[in-house]
Amino acid sequence: MADVKKLVSPADEPKGRIISIFVGAVLLPSLALSWVAMDFVHKLASARKAIAIMQAPGILYYIEKELTQTAQNKAVEAARTLEPEVLLEGRPAVIDAALRKQGVGAGVFETLRLETSSPRMIVRTLRMGSRREIQVSPEVLAAIGSFADGSGEDSVPWPAREGQTGGVLRFKFTCEYAHHKLIREYFENEFKGQYRDQALVVRVSEPSGEVVYETAPTRSDVNFEVSREMETPSFRGLKLAMRYRDLSIEQGVRRWQHWTLILIGFIDIMLGAGLYLVYSNVRRELHLSRLKSDFVANVSHELKTPLALIRLFAETLELGRVPSEDKARQYYQVINKESQRLTQLINNILDFSRIEAGRKEYRFAPTDVGRIVSDVLEAYRFQIEQQGFVLEVRVADDLPEVEADKEALAQAVLNLVNNAIKYSRDEKYLRLDLHREGDKVLLSVTDRGIGVAKGEQKKIFEKFYRAEDSLVHETKGSGLGLALVQHIMQAHGGSVEVESAPGKGSTFTLVLPVRNARS
Questions:
Q1: Rounded distance, CA 466 to CA 287, Å?
Q2: Exposed end of the chain (fewer CB within 10 Å): N or C?
Q3: Sign (positive or negative) of CA dihedral 105, 106, 107, 110
Q4: Is the alpha carbon torsion for 483, 489, 495, 500 positive or negative?
Q5: Residue 14 to residue 139: CA distance in whole angstroms
Q6: Where is 512: in which H helix or E strand?
Q7: Helices (H), ranges, 362-441
C-alpha cells in the first residue's frame, strides 16, 4: 500500500480529489446495482424452479394421453378385423379365438365389445353380396350391460358405417400386454421421436414399485422429482415418474443461479479493475507531471551551479586577479571539469530524448573496458581528490575486449561514479573493480554512501524517479542517470545489478557478455 501511495499525487491535490470523487461516483452505484441484481437473481431462480415444477406434470399428463391414444388405436385396429356380431356379443373367449384366427394374437384383451343404443343392427357381409339383420333383444342388451358397466374399461367412439349403427367400442388390455409390450412400443417409437430434444428420463412402475420400463438407466439413489398415477383403465395403477437426464430441476436452477452470480461478480471485478486502472493511470500521470517539473528544476540547478563556477573563475582570470600561475592553472582545471560536468548532464538529457523517441543508435566495436575506466577516473580525478575520497581501482589482467559502444559505456560508468560521489556523506570511499567471470565481464562501482532501501532498488532505474529519502532530495539530480545506465546495458545484451542497504553504501555492477568478444 505504501508503494501505491508513492505513485499517486498528494490527497490534498485538487485534481487528485476530483479523480477520487469520479471513481466513487461510478463505483458505488455500480456496487449498489450489483447488490440489487443479486437479490433479483435469487428471486428469479425461485420463480424458474416453480415454473419448471409446474410444467413437468404437464409433460406426464400428455404422455398418459398419448399412451391412451395409442391403446385406442390398437383396439380399433383389432376390432375392425372382427365381425360386428362378435363385437356385439363381447364374449372374451369368442373374441380371443377370433383375434387369434385373424393373426392379432391371443391374450391381448380382457374385454373387447361394442355398445350400441339400437336394439337392431343391420350388417352387410361380403359373402355373395348377401345382407343379413341381427336382432339384439333388450334382454341380451341387459345381459351385456350387467357384464360390464364400462367403469373399468377404456372406450372409443365407433363410427357408423353403411348398414350399421354407431356406438362405443369398449376394451381393456391384459396387464401383460399393456404393461410390457404396449408401453415399450410407445416409448421406443413415439416418445423418443417427440421428446428426444428435451433430455427427459421417464420411468413407469407398478404400484408395488417394480419398474415396468425406463427410458434411460438410472441409479437407485436418483430422485425422480415429478410423478403421476395413471387413470386410464388399461394402465390404471401404473405410476409415471420423470426427471431430467443430466441435472434435476433443483440442480439446474442452482447452476443457472451460480453462473449468473459469477457473471455479475465478473462484471463487477472488470468494472473495478477498469476504474482502478483509470484512477492509478491518471494519478500516475499527475505524479509524472510533478516529477517532470522537479526534473526541470533540478536540471536548472545542475546547469546553474557549474555555469556559475565557470563564469566566476573566467571573470577572475579575465580581470587578472589571479595571485599565481599555480592558482590560474587550478582555475583552468575547475573550468574544464565543470564543462565536462555540463557536457555529461546535457548528454544524459539528449540521450534520454533519443531513447524516448526511439532514435538512439549504438555503434559497437571491440572495446577495452579497462581503458574506459581509466578515462572516466581521469575526468573525475580532480573532484575525487578535492572532496577527499579514498579511491581504489582493481583491474584484472586477463580481460578480453568486448563488443560495445565506447561513448555509451563510458557514459554508464561516468553516471555510476558521479552518483557515488554525490550521495556519499561522512565516509568518502570509492572503489572500482573490473574482472571476468566465465563469459561475462563485471565492472563494480562501490561506495559507502547513504545506500538504497531494498524496496526501492528496482524503482531507482525508472525515469525521473528519486528515492524517498530526505538525504537524496538534499542533493539535486535529474533522475535520468540510472535509467540511462539500464538502457545502455540492455542494448549491450547485459544488465546492471545493485546491492545496497541504507547507511551502508551501494555496489552497482555492470554485467557485459563476452560471447561476441574479440580477445
A1: 12
A2: N
A3: positive
A4: negative
A5: 110
A6: strand 505-513
A7: 369-386, 406-422
Cell numbers found for residue 399: 580481460
Give the integer Cα–Cα distance in Å for 387 and 375: 19
Instruction: State the average pLDDT over residues 405-433.
Output: 87
d(CA 430, CA 416): 11
Amino acid at the residue 332: Y
The model's pTM = 0.43
pLDDT in tens, 84-133: 788 887 788 888 888 888 887 778 888 888 887 654 444 433 333 344 44
Dist. CA 15–CA 23, nearest whole Å: 12
Return the number of other C-beta atoms located less than 10 Å from residue 119's C-beta: 12
Dihedral angle computed from the Cα positions of residues 482, 488, 493 and 499, in that order, rounded to the nearest 10 degrees: -20
Helix/strand/coil for 221: coil
Q: Computed over its alpha carbons, how large is the radius of gyration of the chain?
A: 51
The total of other beta-carbon atoms located within 10 Å of residue 376's CB is 22
Q: In the numeric block, which cell numbers belong to residue 104? A: 392379432
CA distance linking residue 112 with residue 234, whole number of Å: 12
Given a contact cutoff of 8 angstroms between Cβ atoms, the answer to whether 424 and 448 are in contact is yes
Q: What is the side-by-side order of every strand in the sheet holding 226-229? A: 211-214, 200-205, 239-244, 226-229
Query: Does 29 score more than 80 pLDDT?
Result: no
Measured between alpha carbons, how far is 6 from 20 in angstroms, rounded to an integer?
Answer: 16
Buried/exposed 235-244: b ≥16 CB within 10 Å, e otherwise: beebbbbbbb
Query: What is the full DSSP assignment across 8-53?
Result: S--TT-HHHHHHHHHHHHHHHHHHHHHHHHHHHHHHHHHHHHHHHH
Helices (H), 319-403: 325-357, 369-386
pLDDT tens-digit map of 255-298: 777 788 788 778 778 777 777 777 777 777 776 677 666 666 66
Name residues whose C-beta falls within 8 Å of residue 476's C-beta, 6 or more positions apart in sequence.
298, 301, 302
Query: C-alpha dihedral over 410, 415, 420, 424, to 10 degrees?
Result: 150
Q: Which residue bears the cell 363381447?
A: 90
The cell for 151 is 367403469
**Residue 131 CB contacts under 8 Å (≥ 6 apart), including other chains:** 122, 123, 124, 125, 163
Distance, CA of 283 to CA of 7 (rounded, Å): 7
Kind plus residue range of the DSSP H or E element containing 392: strand 390-395
Cα distances from 28 to residues 199, 260, 417, in angstroms, run 43, 21, 52
What domains, with CATH codes, occur in the chain?
A: 80-173 (no CATH), 322-513 (3.30.565.10)
DSSP state of 189: I
User: Which of helix, strand or coil describes residue 380?
Assistant: helix
Strands 167-173 and 109-115: antiparallel
